[in-house]
Amino acid sequence: MGDHDVSPNPKGSFRKFLEQLSGAGKAIGVLTSGGDAQGMNAAVRAVVRMGIYVGAKVYFIYEGYQGMVDGGSNIVEADWESVSSILQVGGTIIGSARCKDFRSREGRLKAAHNLLQLGITNLCVIGGDGSLTGANIFRKEWSGLLEELAREGKINTEEVQKHGYLNVVGMVGSIDNDFCGTDMTIGTDSALHRIIEVVDAIMTTAQSHQRTFVLEVMGRHCGYLALVSALACGADWVFLPESPPEEGWQENMCIKLSENRARKKRLNIIIVAEGAIDTQNKAITSEQIKELVVTQLGYDTRVTILGHVQRGGTPSAFDRILASRMGVEAVVALLQATPETPACVVSLSGNQAVRLPLMECVQMTQEVQKAMDERRFKDAVQLRGRSFENNLNTYKRLAIKLPDSQIPKSNCNVGIVNVGAPAAGMNAAVRAAVRVGIADGHKVFAVYDGFEGFAKGQVKEIGWADVGGWTGQGGSILGTKRTLPGKYLEDIATQMRTHGINALLIIGGFEAYLGLLELSAAREKHKEFCVPMVMVPATVSNNVPGSDFSIGADTALNTITDMCDRIKQSASGTKRRVFIIETMGGYCGYLANMGALAAGADAAYIFEEPFDIRDLQSNVEHLTEKMKTTIQRGLVLRNESCSENYTTDFIYQLYSEEGKGVFDCRKNVLGHMQQGGAPSPFDRNFGTKISARAMQWISTKLKEPAGRGKRFVSDDSVCVLGISKRNLLFQPVAELKEETDFVHRIPKEQWWLKLRPLMKILAKYKASFEVSDAGQLEPMQPRGPEEHATI
Predict the structure, then answer these.
(1) Is 449 designated active site?
(2) Fewest C-beta in 10 Å: which of 199, 204, 218, 411?
(3) Which of 5, 36, 70, 176 is catalytic?
(4) Could you give all domains of the chain from N- to C-terminal order, each with its CATH number?
(5) Is 302 annotated as a binding residue?
(6) pTM for the structure as a whole
(7) Over the stretch 254-272, which tens digit does the pLDDT of each residue have?
């Protein structure tokens, strides 16, 4: 935290890191172009700070390419403070414009001249595929443009030699998530937040009046927003450009809507992407759909067009972290570039930052459009990537129930139970599991109130319609308890026998993991536990071994970020004030660390990185220095169990004493608000997909040659399903035991610790940053047969 390096690398690594990556004598220009997206500012902030940090000069290029062509006051050197307080602001503070001039060679010649006057030969472009293509053309023409400028006598030959090539790195900022090669573009998650807020609000009024709502969301050529929001709110029907409805959809849709009404559902939600088309490439508009519902069914129907609301508002925690990681990675990529390096995009795959060849991504993105124009819709869906295809398949399975007569019965009973503390998204997970279970021909039994309820016989069959409308509900509708099964083994075994339970799905946190271990250890004594058992991680703490993410952590992170934004606002009003905020998480520092990154905090104290009085002292000195600048406020996060003796009160009192006369101190304990609230789009989507996948695994296990009736005794029949790096993995609990610190209830290895230095660098501390996993360009697409974990 202070100057002595406490990152996982040994001392002196910071110096080595700067030698590897010196920006001395280099100039970087950063611009945002095309449509704006929430999170662009976080990316700009990261580029500026990382650039300055490694010794480069960084320039703002205002108003996109237009500013580059016009030059003059549009290109301005940025300093550390220029990007203060912009992390929580939507849009882009450096402006964006559509630029005709840059499309002509004369325009690009002017732009090149303007950049050369400041020695800028590194460009970081944040925008959509059009903006990135423009940057690539500029890069290819660079030496030709320089020669032309030299011929016109605008620059001398020495400059041509010195600035001989242009490096370009792109980041995709687009709310549509329409760029191939990246799992999530900057702004997509925030746009989903806006859509889901609206859908949640509309649902309450639609419920009152038994109305049908047609919601139009953005996405002229890409149905990602429509698809994921339909998945996240359990919409009745969705229209996408990539996957038009089959001929005769009008009738099918009306049947579906009236069936839902017959099941006592008081409202219908239909989501339409603005670019929706039918199989003949004719537009399907929201008004058309409304007309259809009114004339065919006579339902009271309303249209809501969300429009630019989706681009607005504050960026979500996910987008801030994504953009900050990409911004830092972009600077590293620019400094490592050589004249031979092709232009690249920094992107996210699973939760790994990767670099991809820019033009290949752009070509693939254009391929999708071509496939749609030529009515090759299957290809279009596949080109969008595995995540899109998975979303579509999951949506179809969960939205449309086949008549019972068409579902082959498996004669298996599957139990579902929630264990541990409540986490937002648990209900979405239960809904997905119940529906996939029923679609696979099983009877599904809900267990109420955790293992305790299980022992008492609170077990009831649950149907398709029983879980309608569950995705948007926070907490746990089934009820959840922290109690472990150990002391109830007899009773639970009896209940398993009574209800003939052939498999068990457990949704919960660390207690669920411990419970799974106890049940699997009891197999020798109780044959009832010799069935497939799988756990889906759901806890705000994100401390379950075997998964990088758990359901509920994203919602909690957004709550923390939101609170920190408000607190920072209050602090900047009073000036010279430092806030100490205590977050949840048990011994796991995930929420404190990621919250600090998303809220732009000065420090985060966590258990995984021991700290002592010298660190506290150096943090106080750091804040004292900061108060001399224009940024007169401080934010410090502390995980609730990071240290037995350095409590929140202790740190608050120490800061108050040491900061006397320079700053005053306040403290805030966020507490249980982190467990509540409506689940974020990420948690709804993640909970739905991971839980549906867990139920598919159960079905596969039960279909094995001697599936039903045989005893499952092998380790691979008791698993945790999680995301690890880029893949969805089922890991036997027996193997995960080795990777667990049971005393502190955390995994021994945690991926997010390598983001610690990132937070410190952006807060102006010295830290060595592990340069991306390979730092190499990755080939595009075809990845092996393993399951790609995209969210």
Answers:
(1) no
(2) 204
(3) 176
(4) 19-185+315-370 (3.40.50.450), 190-278+287-308 (3.40.50.460), 413-548+684-746 (3.40.50.450), 553-675 (3.40.50.460)
(5) yes
(6) 0.94
(7) 999 999 888 888 889 999 9
